[in-house]
Write a structure and sequence with these properties.
By secondary structure, this protein is α+β, with helices and mostly antiparallel strands. It has a single domain (2-188), classed as 2-Layer Sandwich (Alpha-Beta Plaits), CATH 3.30.70. The chain has 4 helices and 11 strands; from the N terminus they run E-E-H-E-E-E-H-H-E-E-H-E-E-E-E. Strands 1-5-3-10-7-9-8-6 form an 8-stranded antiparallel barrel. The protein starts with a strand and ends with a strand.
Length: 194
């Protein structure tokens, strides 16, 4: 499993209806994308759920590197780059994935929490803790799924969870979910990824 996200931070007075309309128009295009576990089309609005910014920030869980590369290099990503400029694309190696009791339910919000892996930390303990946090989040009421991944170039963990209600039991940046494409959800490996 591979996690990926890019963020388009938009002006404070940007009409976020433009992003909503864009997702309504093209969101379905990845509903059957080969190699994709999940794509969550995410939005943060300045002043809503504590967000300091207007932002479009899709988050992906990939089953295959080939699917991710086809998205990035095969033309689909070029449309976004043409419209908004080419954003930096963050990638993390998967650590854990668990489905929640609300799996299959429509997702209302997503929560993303990034944290540094401290220098000198016992890596096996930190990664085991990330797996445990994934299990805890997935066990909470309203959880659709929870995942954890790590970027070893920055030594950063990311915890990501989807929720069927607007009061998630997770800490981090809260996003509105505009659409979910999940063609390979059933193929995402459950539990610890090593």
């Amino acid at each position: 499993m591979h996690a990926m996200q890019y963020e388009l931070s938009l002006p404070a007075d940007y009409d976020m209806g433009v992003i909503r309309s864009r997702v309504a128009r093209i969101g379905h295009l990845l509903d059957d994308w080969e190699g994709l576990g999940f794509k969550t089309y995410l939005l943060r609005e300045r002043g809503v759920n504590g967000s300091p910014v207007n932002q479009y920030a899709p988050f992906y869980l990939w089953n295959t590197v080939e699917g991710m590369n086809t998205f990035l290099w095969g033309g689909a990503f070029q449309g976004l780059s043409n419209d908004f400029g080419r954003p930096s694309v963050r990638q993390w190696t998967g650590l854990a994935y668990e489905e929640g009791a609300a799996a299959g339910s429509p997702a209302r919000v997503a929560v993303r929490r990034r944290q540094s892996v401290p220098d000198g930390a016992e890596l096996s303990e930190v990664m085991a803790g990330a797996v445990g946090e994934t299990e805890r989040l997935a066990g909470e009421d309203g959880a659709v799924f929870a995942a954890a991944a790590v970027d070893t170039s920055r030594w950063e963990l990311v915890h990501f969870s989807l929720w069927a209600h607007e009061t998630p039991k997770a800490d981090g940046d809260v996003f509105e979910v505009l659409h979910v494409s999940a063609p390979g959800r059933e193929r995402l490996p459950r539990g610890r990824q090593w």
